């Protein structure tokens, strides 16, 4: 890759990190789509996306926690079985084109719903613990199948079931992504014993974009702005799942 293409990729990764981190996501689907467009090899794309995911999710988790939006009581039941389930999904890797299309349609529907949402729900309730644990396991499995951290699925569930407000959902999703991304990278490293150097080159872009986006999303952006950003994130991810094979 020549210097001009590397600079363009650097800028694109920074913008994706900004957009996704403002809603508590880390950007795996965006990184994968972008690196695919730039013609990078799949063996480079997957671990690089995981490295960037971990960096941005770390920043987002800290920023939303520091702003007072994180709820441990909401987080841990979803996370409990998500890590082993994500490992299982990644291990199986069946031919899942129909599953990807179905999930993509769900994400697009969620994006449309969020576009018309004006504010937080008037009231929220904690989900029953067994429901949260089972949902977390299912979402972890989906994250393994689709190669993401799982937050792209968790956030719409939290919002549409009225289990969390928008910033609280963002905070919980950020840490959910972080733990699942680390599990995925550890599994990859255990098998390959190396991580492509491109992840280190793009780390600065992800850190800059993720720091600005998560700070603005956790403290300054209005809820309506975050809703629109989240709708854009779900739209990008849904299109990516449907049209990227």
Describe it for me?
With 245 residues, the chain is mostly helical. The protein has eleven helices and no strands. It has one domain (3-243). The mean pLDDT is 83. The chain has helices spanning 3-21, 28-37, 42-66, 72-80, 82-92, 97-115, 129-146, 151-160, 166-192, 198-220, 223-243.
In summary, what is this structure?
With 245 residues, the chain is an all-alpha fold. It has 11 helices and no strands. The two termini are 23 Å apart.
β-strand number: 0
DSSP helical segment count: 11
Instruction: Provide the residue-averaged pLDDT.
Output: 83
Radius of gyration: 16 Å
Task: Give the proportion of residues in helices.
Answer: over 70%
The structure class reads: mainly alpha
Shape summary: globular
Can you write the helix and strand succession as a string?
HHHHHHHHHHH
Oligomer: single chain
The total tally of domains equals 1
Kindly report how far apart the N and C termini lie: 23 Å
Strand content: under 5%
Low-confidence runs of at least 5 consecutive residues:
none
Main β-sheet, in a few words? none
List keywords for this structure.
78% helix, mainly alpha, 245 residues, single chain, 11 helices
Secondary structure topology:
Elements: H1 3-21, H2 28-37, H3 42-66, H4 72-80, H5 82-92, H6 97-115, H7 129-146, H8 151-160, H9 166-192, H10 198-220, H11 223-243
Helix pairs in contact: 1-2, 1-10, 2-3, 3-9, 3-10, 4-7, 4-9, 5-7, 5-9, 6-11, 8-9
């Amino acid at each position: 890759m020549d210097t001009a293409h590397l600079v363009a990729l650097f800028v694109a990764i920074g913008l994706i990190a900004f957009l996704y981190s403002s809603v508590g996501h880390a950007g795996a689907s965006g990184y994968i789509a972008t690196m695919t467009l730039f013609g990078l090899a799949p063996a480079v794309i997957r671990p690089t996306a995981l490295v960037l995911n971990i960096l941005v999710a770390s920043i987002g988790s800290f920023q939303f926690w520091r702003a007072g939006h994180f709820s441990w009581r909401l987080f841990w039941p979803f996370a409990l079985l998500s890590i082993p389930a994500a490992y299982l999904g990644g291990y199986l890797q069946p031919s899942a084109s129909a599953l990807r299309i179905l999930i993509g349609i769900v994400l697009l529907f969620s994006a449309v719903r969020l576009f018309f949402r004006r504010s937080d729900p008037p009231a929220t309730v904690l989900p029953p613990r067994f429901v949260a644990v089972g949902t977390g396991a299912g979402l972890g499995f989906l994250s393994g199948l689709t190669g993401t951290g799982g937050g792209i699925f968790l956030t719409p569930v939290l919002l549409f079931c009225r289990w969390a407000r928008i910033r609280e959902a963002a905070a919980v999703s950020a840490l959910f992504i972080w733990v699942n991304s680390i599990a995925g990278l550890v599994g990859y490293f255990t098998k390959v014993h190396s991580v492509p150097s491109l992840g280190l080159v793009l780390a600065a872009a992800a850190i800059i974009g993720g720091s600005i986006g998560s700070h603005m999303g956790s403290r300054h952006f209005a809820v309506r702005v975050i809703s629109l950003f989240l709708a854009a994130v779900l739209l990008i991810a849904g299109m990516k799942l449907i049209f990227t094979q």
